[in-house]
């Protein structure tokens, strides 16, 4: 219990009075739950709500549990210090129904409670006014059934590779209630957490914050103690129990606090040998991310890894749970310490704040610590995955906010979420500014939560632009554009037209910057960027030399498909700009010529050298216009062709 708290005097209710109140209260609640079909949906509704209507603020959790790496059974208590933010006649925490709750106390005194439907409802009588500090302790024991689901609050698994058994917790998105009594509201971070876990003497426990001196209870049991004083979201509170050795080092990013890195790996010399080099990569990544995202947020405590036999990783604050030590997994979970932990998504619909940036952290680690080409190769997998289906949004729709499978949809939340960050970097087109936006967002939402809209606010402010359109189409909108690009070379201008269709019916029109690489006749190259704000838009780009080739999005920044990029066929360009307009064959010997590079012919005139007009027999429309010249005598002419925007005169020889 923290020593800085002094409780307000609590009125002790008389025994008989207490019984009466509790009986009536229990009846009304039992009735309520029956009639409105109260189910676990209550917990899930709470979990993604934007506003916290619980009426209290969690200050401190103290988990005091007995557990082991043999199975998921637990016994002990959760202590929760809360401050009432409005008058309260009850307080509700979530705790899975499979646990047996033996008692609940309020400030050390027995309380009346109900435990059903995964909720512990605690009666407050009399009502407590706003501002009251209360300490609840919920005593429970039992074990939840193991479902084999990845998303399970507490799990036990065996590594055949290393012959290790581990009990680990994984509470994201809202499964903390499967191992401790929790308030599962993202916006209410606990100010501090203590985690005490009593295990058999030969087991270790890894957790959040700083390890305290363990307490040897007797010859066979030891209590491991961890404390963290950084604000923490409920789902980042963790414990992992196994047979571990430590592999630790300190990293000193330039101009910042040294960071203690504490790794719990299986207690086997071969494991350290196997993973050591990979784990060592953490040092460079910590330096890199501190530079890109701002100083490591938890340097006063540590960063850590704990190994467990499961597929993937989990960014438990200051102690990531690791299924392996792949370069990208280390980068991902480390990136989460800024995006997810320091700043937590404000709703599960905004999981992009966590996973989009963690995914992009992988790219950044490869780009900056290996090289750009390798990063691009890595990114292609994501691009292909995203394009493998036509729709789907990064923002999780309301209908998906209760479904971990949708929240953590790999294609949309991770791949497309990361690609969104990449495209934003391209739109900003200034890495200094791009990373400044990231750092400012992280700073502004430090130890709190943020949404996609919160990010846009910072983005607009720092760039002095309005990126609402970008988020409308890439965050809230689904799908991607499919492009047909046409271009024409003029003597001093290159014309580029961008035609777009959506990847599915009803897909938004995608605005954005289109980058082109022009190859010039003199062999040089020029990069141009144009902003497309409407469909079928044409761009006249002044250029010093003739253009012989145009490549669209040559670095593949934009999430898209390209149907075609071709020369000729730009609609509505003044003809005098159309260097590609040509007549053939020349001379015309068969009584006709073809006219190419002209799309909307409105007038054709044939003029001889004396300035007289001549009739042509017919004009046949098409990709190549066919002009019937059978009426013309052999000689030299000027062929004048016009469309609605202008005309061009071309020499014509008839034999
Ligand atoms: Zn709080
Ligand atoms: Zn992640």
> How many E strands?
37
Q: Which percent range describes the beta-strand content?
A: 35-45%
The biggest beta sheet, please?
8 strands, mixed
Shape estimate: elongated
Number of domains: 4
CATH class of the largest domain: Mainly Beta
Radius of gyration: 34 Å
Give the class from helix and strand content and strand pairing: alpha+beta
Which CATH architecture of the largest domain is right?
Sandwich
Fraction of helical residues = 10-25%
CATH homologous superfamily designation of the largest domain: tricorn interacting facor f3 domain
What strand order characterises the main sheet? 5-4-8-2-1-11-14-13
List all distinct small molecules, including ions and cofactors, that are bound in this structure.
Answer: zinc ion
Spatial separation of the terminal alpha carbons: 105 Å
Detailed description of the structure:
- The protein has eleven helices and 37 strands.
- 24% of the residues lie in helices and 36% in strands.
- The strands form nine sheets. It has an eight-stranded mixed beta sheet with strand order 5-4-8-2-1-11-14-13, with no helix packed on it. It has a five-stranded mixed beta sheet with strand order 16-17-18-20-19, covered by helices on one side.
- The chain has four domains: 1-242, tricorn interacting facor f3 domain (Immunoglobulin-like); 348-474, Neutral Protease, domain 2 (Orthogonal Bundle); 481-567, Immunoglobulin-like; 575-654, Immunoglobulin-like (Sandwich).
- By secondary structure, it is an alpha+beta fold.
- It starts with 14 loop residues before the first helix and ends with a strand.
- It is elongated.
- Residues 1-48 have low confidence and may be disordered.
- Helix 3 (269-293) packs across helix 4, helix 5 (352-369) runs antiparallel to helix 6 and helix 9 packs across helix 10 (452-463).
- The chain binds zinc ion (2 copies).
- One zinc ion is lined by residues 315, 332, 336, 355, 358.
């Amino acid at each position: 219990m923290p020593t800085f708290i002094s409780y307000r005097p609590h009125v002790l209710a008389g025994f008989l009075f207490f019984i009466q109140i509790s009986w009536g209260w229990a009846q009304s609640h039992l009735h309520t739950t029956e009639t409105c079909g109260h189910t676990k949906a209550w917990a899930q509704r709470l979990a993604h709500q934007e506003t916290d209507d619980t009426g209290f603020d969690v200050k401190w959790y103290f988990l005091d549990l007995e557990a082991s790496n043999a199975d998921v059974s637990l016994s002990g208590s959760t202590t929760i210090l809360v401050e009432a933010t409005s008058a309260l006649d009850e307080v509700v925490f979530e705790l899975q129904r499979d646990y047996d709750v033996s008692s609940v106390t309020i400030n050390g005194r027995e309380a009346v409670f109900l435990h059903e439907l995964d909720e512990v409802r605690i009666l407050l009588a009399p009502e407590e006014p706003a501002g009251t500090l209360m300490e609840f302790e919920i005593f429970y024991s039992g074990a939840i059934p193991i479902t084999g689901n990845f998303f399970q609050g507490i799990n036990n698994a065996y590594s055949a590779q290393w012959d290790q058994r581990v009990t680990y917790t994984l509470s994201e998105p809202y499964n903390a209630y499967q191992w401790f009594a929790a308030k599962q509201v993202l916006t209410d971070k606990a100010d501090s957490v203590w985690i005490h876990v009593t295990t058999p003497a030969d087991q270790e426990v890894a957790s959040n914050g700083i390890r305290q001196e363990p307490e040897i209870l007797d010859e066979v049991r030891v209590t491991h103690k961890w404390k963290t004083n950084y604000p923490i979201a409920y789902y980042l509170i963790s414990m992992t129990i196994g047979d571990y050795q430590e592999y630790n080092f300190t990293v000193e990013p330039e101009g910042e606090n040294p960071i203690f890195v504490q790794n719990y790996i299986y207690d086997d010399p071969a494991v350290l040998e196997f993973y050591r080099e990979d784990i060592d990569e953490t040092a460079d990544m910590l330096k890199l991310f501190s530079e890109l995202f701002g100083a490591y947020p938890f340097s006063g405590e540590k960063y850590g890894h704990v190994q467990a036999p499961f597929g993937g990783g989990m960014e438990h604050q200051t102690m990531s749970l690791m299924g392996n030590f792949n370069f990208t997994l280390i980068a991902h979970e480390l990136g989460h310490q800024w995006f997810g932990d320091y700043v937590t998504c404000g709703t599960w619909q905004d999981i992009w704040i966590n996973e989009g940036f963690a995914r992009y952290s992988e790219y950044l680690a490869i780009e900056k610590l290996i090289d750009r080409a390798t990063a691009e190769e890595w990114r292609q997998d994501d691009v292909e995955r995203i394009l493998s289906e036509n729709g789907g949004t990064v923002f999780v729709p309301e209908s998906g906010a209760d479904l971990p499978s949708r929240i953590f949809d790999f294609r949309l939340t991770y791949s497309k979420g990361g690609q969104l960050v990449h495209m934003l970097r391209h739109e900003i087109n200034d890495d200094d500014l791009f990373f400044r936006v990231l750092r400012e967002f992280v700073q502004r939402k430090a130890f709190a939560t943020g949404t996609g809209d919160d990010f846009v606010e910072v983005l607009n402010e720092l760039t002095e632009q309005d990126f609402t359109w970008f988020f409308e189409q890439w965050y809230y909108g689904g799908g991607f554009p499919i492009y047909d690009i046409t271009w024409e070379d003029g003597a001093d201008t290159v014309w580029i037209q961008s035609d777009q269709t959506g990847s599915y019916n009803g897909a938004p029109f995608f605005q954005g910057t289109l980058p082109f690489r022009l190859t010039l006749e003199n062999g040089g190259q020029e990069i141009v960027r144009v902003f497309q704000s409407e469909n079928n838009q044409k761009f006249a780009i002044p250029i010093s030399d003739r253009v012989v080739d145009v490549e669209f999005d040559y670095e593949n920044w934009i999430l898209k498909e390209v149907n075609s990029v071709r020369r000729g066929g730009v609609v509505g360009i003044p003809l005098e700009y159309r260097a590609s307009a040509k007549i053939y064959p020349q001379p015309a010997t068969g009584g006709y010529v073809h006219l190419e590079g002209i799309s909307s012919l409105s007038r054709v005139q044939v003029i001889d050298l004396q300035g007289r007009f001549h009739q042509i027999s017919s004009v046949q429309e098409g990709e190549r216009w066919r002009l019937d010249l059978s009426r013309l005598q052999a000689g030299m002419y000027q062929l004048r062709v016009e469309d609605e925007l202008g005309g061009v005169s071309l020499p014509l020889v008839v034999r």
